[in-house]
Amino acid sequence: MSPRDRATMWMLVILLIATLVGTCTLMIRPTNAHYAPSGWEYPPSCCENDCKPIPCDEVTENAKGGYDWHKVYFPDEKVHESGDKQCHACAVESAVPPYPRCLFIKKKEIF
Q1: In this structure, are 26 and 48 located in the same domain?
Q2: How many domains would you assign to the chain?
Q3: Are 80 and 59 in contact (CB under 8 A)?
Q4: What is the pLDDT of residue 29?
Q5: pTM, two decimal places
Q6: Region 8-28 average pLDDT
Q7: Which residues span the domain enclosing 84?
Q8: What does the DSSP 8-state code read for residue 31?
Q9: Are 13 and 41 part of one and the same domain?
């Protein structure tokens, strides 16, 4: 095999590896995450395209801890500080009872 053929073979191997790495990277990216209108990305662990901005005045503290929004109870472990200083809810509202995923609030400014 000539040096030129060897160089061509190595270039093809490198191209193949780069293509495989790129394809694998695209395949493992979460497909269910999406963005708030402000551009802040909802965490994939919370979101299955059911997150949305909500008025902060619709969120109330619950007497047993956690927060309520539209009759959906979010225990403390599902409540996080918002990434854009707005309130957001991620919940399956059509489930009976509604299933809470995550609630994002302005923790330092609300309540």
Answers
A1: no
A2: 2
A3: no
A4: 44
A5: 0.65
A6: 67
A7: 33-111
A8: S
A9: no
Alpha carbons within 13 angstroms on the beta-carbon side of residue 31 total 4
- 23 and 48 in a single domain? The answer is no
Instruction: Indicate if 6 and 56 belong to the same structural domain.
Output: no
Close Cβ partners of 110 (under 8 Å, ≥ 6 residues apart): 56, 59, 87
The structure tokens listed for 111 are 């309540």
Instruction: Count Cβ atoms within 10 A of the Cβ of residue 91 and give its class: 0-12 exposed, 13-18 middle, 19 or more buried.
Output: buried
Residues 47, 64, single domain; the answer is: yes
Beta strands 99-105 and 79-81, pairing class: parallel
Query: How far is it, in rounded angstroms, from Cα 62 to Cα 56?
Result: 15
Q: Token pair of 75, please?
A: 């225990």
Mean of per-residue pLDDT scores for the chain = 82
Query: Position of tokens 């059509």?
Result: 94
